[in-house]
Amino acid sequence: MIGAAPTLIQILLLLFILTFTTFHSMPMTTVPKTMKITGLVTLLSVASAQAFVAPSIFKAPSAGAMTSGSAAVAEPVCPSTSRRSVMTMAKKSVGSLADADLKGKRVFVRCDLNVPLDGKTITDDTRIRASVPTIEYLASKGAKVLLTSHLGRPKGKEDKFSLSPVADRLTELLGKKVAFVEDCIGEAVSTAVAGLKEGDVALLENVRFYPEEEKNVAEFAEKLAANADLYVNDAFGTAHRAHGSTEGVAKFLKPAVAGFLLQKELDYLDGAVSQPKRPFAAIVGGSKVSTKITVIETLINKVDKLVIGGGMVFTFLKARGHNVGGSLVEEDKLDLARSLEELAKQKGVKFILPTDVVIADKFAPDANSKVVASTEIPEGWMGLDNGPESTKMIQAELADCKTIIWNGPMGVFEFDKFAAGTSAIAQTLAELTAKGATTIVGGGDSVAAVEKAGLADKLSHVSTGGGASLELLEGKVLPGVAALNEA
Questions:
Q1: DSSP characters over 85-126
Q2: Is-contact 245 119, C-beta < 8 A?
Q3: DSSP state of 287
Q4: What is the pLDDT of residue 13?
Q5: Which of 207, 246, 299, 331 is 20 to 30 A from 369, comparing alpha carbons?
Q6: Where are the alpha helices (DSSP H) in 435-482?
Q7: SS3 of 52, please?
Q8: Residue 440 has pLDDT above 50, yes or no
Q9: Distance, CA of 316 to CA of 298 (rounded, Å)
Q10: Which of these, 434, 433, 431, 441, lies nearest to 405 by C-alpha position?
Q11: Are 230 and 107 in contact (CB under 8 A)?
Q12: Which of helix, strand or coil describes residue 58?
């Protein structure tokens, strides 16, 4: 009867219908049938005592909330927890896989073995050595390891871009024979894999011998995956490319996980920069503002101090109204330079430009040179390096910093006469690392600079990726990382 007080039986019947409907609508993969029954009884008991439950503020219980033989506990819905960007989500690492996941399994590993060659002679094996820890780990776990990489920019199958010299160097580094397979797909690979024993390692031919690789053709990626059981990406240097061997193959092999090198890059370039110990400083060098716009904007929103170096200094100086002589200037970026400096001011970021510079009368290693104030560069002369006072100032600014990231040289370090500013920064970072600071060299020419100075092993992390480092620092999603399984 309308208006009449409902009886206890009517209340319980209504509650039973509401509760049964809520639980019955949950997928069986979310809540097992026995759990539904247990939870139904529990909710009915609670409902009898409390008269009403508002189901709209609950969601299905998480795995962590379920225990054998106990009732499922509903959790409040919090929509914001699902709105994390891909790059902030931890990716599963090869080290997290169980021994049973690897023993006897065929593991397809994308490495970055793109090393410089003089004919068939490797002139710098840094990238090969960086790949060794992941390879050794997989082999020690009894996996059958299948390595792939690109080398150079071949136009079809060109012998000068063959990875065969890399197989020889890997054999030396691993202390065991690394078989070389003269293709990366097809029967040659199937035959080679069939002959692999547990712990064996094989290197496939240059994956870019096929144009389908860079076009990320699904059928090609499927052929790459055909002879493997799972995927490991250890090629940070190409993680910003959505290619067949970096992104496409992950659709056909599961699990798809990060190798140790890739994980280290993410830990430093994403982790340390996202949650830095402060004060946090960034040193951004290079010739042009236009190539570093996004990374400068991103870092201004994160750092306490921003040091500008390299050729881009003179665009900022001219934007301030100073004469820069014949120094490199992007005339169409003067307004941009002003806006970036103003942004830093608004954010409370200390914006540091050199106060003196080493100038030259021509762009050459044997040019005449002298040191002048950065605001007094005469006509016919160009700035090619930081001056000694600028170096002292930068060193003083960095002295109290707990996190420092460096991308781009301070000058034309390739010429010894103009390498002092860059070398001094490398030495300073090595000294600060020894005192407990986290120092990160974010790819590009600054890596070559620390290698030249012999200080790479004295810093916290030297990135193996140029473009990938920049894009990660800019906050962009790297396709090769996004394709991997979440931790």
A1: -GGGSPBPBGGGS-HHHHTT-EEEEE------EETTEES--H
A2: no
A3: S
A4: 53
A5: 331
A6: 445-453, 467-473, 479-482
A7: coil
A8: yes
A9: 18
A10: 441
A11: yes
A12: strand
CB 263 within 8 A of CB 287: no
Query: Is the distance from CB of 89 to CB of 274 less than 8 angstroms?
Result: no
Give dist(CA 125, CA 143) in Å, integer: 24
CA-nearest of 136, 159, 147, 155 to 113 is: 147
Nearest Cα residue to 32 out of 5, 80, 57, 69: 69
Do 91-258 and 272-473 agree at the fold level?
yes
Q: What is the DSSP string of 61-82?
A: PPGGG--TTS----EE--GGGG
pTM, 2 dp: 0.74
The residue type at 42: T
Strands 382-386, 356-360: parallel, antiparallel or unpaired by DSSP? antiparallel
Stretch among 42-51, 359-368, 370-379 having the lowest mean pLDDT: 42-51
So what's the pLDDT on residue 487?
84
**272-473: which CATH topology?**
Rossmann fold (3.40.50)
Give per-residue burial for 58-89: e unless 16+ CB within 10 Å, then b.
eebbeeeebeeeebbebeeeeeeeeeeeebee
Q: DSSP string covering 194-248, please?
A: HTPPTT-EEEE--GGGSTHHHHT-HHHHHHHHTT-SEEEE--GGGTTS--TTTTG
pLDDT in tens, 314-329: 999 999 999 999 999 9
CATH architecture of the domain formed by 91-258: 3-Layer(aba) Sandwich (3.40)
CB atoms within 10 A of CB 482: 16
Distance of CA 85 to the CA centre of its chain: 14
For residue 437, the SS3 value is coil
Domain regions of the chain by residue span: 1-58, 91-258, 272-473
So which residues are the catalytic ones? 127, 288, 444, 467
Buried b (16+ CB within 10 A) or exposed e, 124-136: ebebbebbbebbb
**Half-sphere exposure at residue 263, Cβ-oriented, CA atoms within 13 angstroms:** 18
Structure tokens belonging to residue 348: 């409370």
Q: Which residue has the tokens 């008991």?
A: 45
List the single range of 85-94, 291-300, 463-472 with lowest mean pLDDT. Answer: 85-94
